[in-house]
Structures are given as structure tokens and as C-alpha cells.
Amino acid sequence: MKAAVCYEFAKPLVVEEVDIDPPKKDEVKAKIAATAICHSDIHVCMGELGGKVPFIGGHESAGYVEEVGKDITSVKPGDPVVVSLIASCGKCVYCRTGRSHLCSYMWPLDRESRAHSKSGQDLPPLVRTGTFAEYAIVHESQVVKIPADMPMDCASLLACGVITGFGAVVNRAKVEVASSCVIIGTGGVGLNAIQGAAISGAYPIIAVDVLDSKLEASKTFGATHTVNAAKKDAVEAVREITGGAEYVFVTVGNADAILQGFGMLRPGGMTVVVGLPKATDTITLSPLMFIKDEKTLTASYMGSTELQTDIPKMVGLYRAGILKLDELITGRYPLEQINEAIDSVVKGKALRNVIMF
Ligand SMILES: [Zn+2]
Ligand SMILES: [Zn+2]
């Protein structure tokens, strides 16, 4: 099969023929139809999150079940599926209490490779997924069946970017009707936090970014107010509109933005960190602020998503015309042009670029 391999940090991916093993007993081999470029893939490929090379990136995908291990009964060859990095054992305390995204089971795929270069080198999948390739082998819990008429490009976005933003608002913060929400950063994840807030009935919904063009686009997803942080003090602007926000979602991976977000809160408010900062980033906060104003600073991993129940719900919202997915896709590229697709995301030209197979 063809795969885009990261052999060296901060260098273009190498698209080449590689070999892939059959799935083990509880694994699924998926034929990838669409895989979106997520900023986390880029951070890892740039070496910003540590780790080792080589590897095969990609974790925001959809495709068809090609082959299943002998213990698999939940899907069969030919089934259309979303392929995500969220794997769950179904047995631990998190899986049993509706928090399967926190499942800490160590999967064989976290340390083993199913793909190998023609010279015999192991090519492990990034975050046990590795969908920058024509096929990927994942644990059974990482695939969710979707309807046959669901477009694959839109379906791929559900695996990471959409659930991360939407779920931070809906699952983690559980935003109430008419509560004030601020979303810092209006990239792919930020726009999905905005549409999560809009679908939850929040008001006002304030988008904060440094580019007027992105702020304009955020209105399509439900932003009621916009603040250009390059032109005015974002904390003051939010305070003027809300008197202090009830919820702030920080979707950019930036320590200063987290502090800004915390400064925008009213007493009792909650800031949810969603964007991945660099491994070396730190923040300093006065503990007194937490006590006196009972503010909450928390985070949401993968939108605190219960993959098997949330993905079908989101497909339903999309098919009802409530959840916007088509509007998130900027470009579609073949695997051979994955480096161009990544480059355009790095330059801030794209919301989501999708590799189509
Ligand atoms: Zn992602
Ligand atoms: Zn578990």
C-alpha cells in the first residue's frame, strides 16, 4: 500500500510503497477513503511534541472495513466507518463511567507496528491510528459504523477536529442555554466549539482571533460577536460585551491565550483548554483567583467524546442540516500531494484539508 511516512522531523513526508500486516484478533483493517490534516499531526511531524521517527501520521479519517480479526463481531468487511484515535477497553473505571476517552489501557498498537518499509523498517502508527496511508489497522473500538450515504470527506472530520471543539462545549462544559461563551481561536477546532455553543443555545458567542477573514467566517458557524485581538485588548472587549464570560474555550495551543481566557471569566466561570500547547509551555496563575472567584480552569481531551454514542448523534445532526461539515473543508488532495496540503494548513490558508483516496 502507499503511505506518507515521517522519517525526519520538520522535513516533507515521504510517500512510498510499504507493507502492512493482517489485523490481530481484536483489530480492524480499514481501507481509508478520506483523512484530514489535523494540527496535532503537524505538531508531531515538526518534532514539537517529542517522540521518535519514523512513523505514519494521520488520525482524522473515514473509510471502509477491509478485513477484521477473528474476535470482531461489531463490524464486517464493507461497512463504512469513522476511524478515530480514541480506543477504549470497555472494562476500566473510565470506560464504565462514560469517560472512555480517558481509558488508559496500553494497546499493542501503542508500541507495535503493523506497517513496514520495503527495507524492513517498522513504521509505527501515530497515536495507534496512522491513516496517512491507503490502509490502517486499528483496535475495534476505534471504528464507528456510519450510514452508507454519509460523504467520506465530511465523515473524516468527525474523528477529531469536530468532536474536539463541539465536545469541549457540549460534553465537558455542558454549556447552558443563554450562557455567554468565548472561543479563542477560530481554526477548525474553534469553529466547531462555536457551532457547539450555537447548537446549545448559548448567547452571546464571542469569537476571538487575529484575522478579520477568519472572524467573518466564524459568523457562519454561529458567532454573534467577534473580537480582533490584534486590534484591541481581547480581555477588555469580552468584559465590555459580557461583564465577564461564563465559559471560555481556548482552542489555540498557546499559554498566553490560556491566561487571557482565564482573565475573561466572571466569578464562577470556567475556562476549558482545548488546543495543544507545546510540551515546554508553562503558565503562572495566582491561586487566590481560584478561591475568591471560584473560577475553574480545566481541559477537554478529544472533546470528552464517547465515540460509539456521540458519532452517530453527530451524523444525525449533520443529516438534519444542523451540524456544518462541508463548510469546514477548504481543499481536497491526493496522498501524493500531502506535503502541499500540510503546507497550506501551516500557512493558515485552510480550515481543514482532506486527503482523498
Ligand atoms: Zn486531531
Ligand atoms: Zn477503558
Question: Can I get a quick summary?
Answer:
Helix content is 27%, strand content 26%. By secondary structure, it is α/β, with parallel strands linked by helices. It has 2 domains: 189 residues, Medium-chain alcohol dehydrogenases, catalytic domain (Quinone Oxidoreductase, Chain A, domain 1, Alpha-Beta Complex), CATH 3.90.180.10; 136 residues, 3-Layer(aba) Sandwich (Rossmann fold), CATH 3.40.50.
What does this structure look like?
There is one protein chain. The chain is of the alpha/beta class and 357 residues long. It is built from eleven helices and 18 strands. The mean pLDDT is 96. The protein binds zinc ion (2 copies). Residues 38, 40, 59-60, 160 line the site of one zinc ion.
Key terms:
357 residues, alpha/beta, Quinone Oxidoreductase, Chain A, domain 1, Rossmann fold, 7-stranded mixed sheet, 6-stranded parallel sheet, 11 helices, 27% helix, 26% strand, globular, binds zinc ion
Please work out how many helical segments DSSP would assign.
11
Low-pLDDT residue intervals, each spanning 5 or more residues:
none
| DSSP strand count | 18
Ligand species: zinc ion
CATH class wording of the largest domain: Alpha Beta
The CATH architecture designation of the largest domain is Alpha-Beta Complex
Main pleated sheet:
7 strands, mixed
Taking all residues together, what is the mean pLDDT?
A: 96
Percent of residues in β-strands: 25-35%
- Please name the CATH topology of the largest domain: Quinone Oxidoreductase, Chain A, domain 1
Radius of gyration: 20 Å
Query: How helical, in percent, are the residues?
Result: 25-40%
Query: CATH homologous superfamily name of the largest domain?
Result: Medium-chain alcohol dehydrogenases, catalytic domain
Shape: globular
- Helix/strand class: alpha/beta
Number of separate structural domains: 2
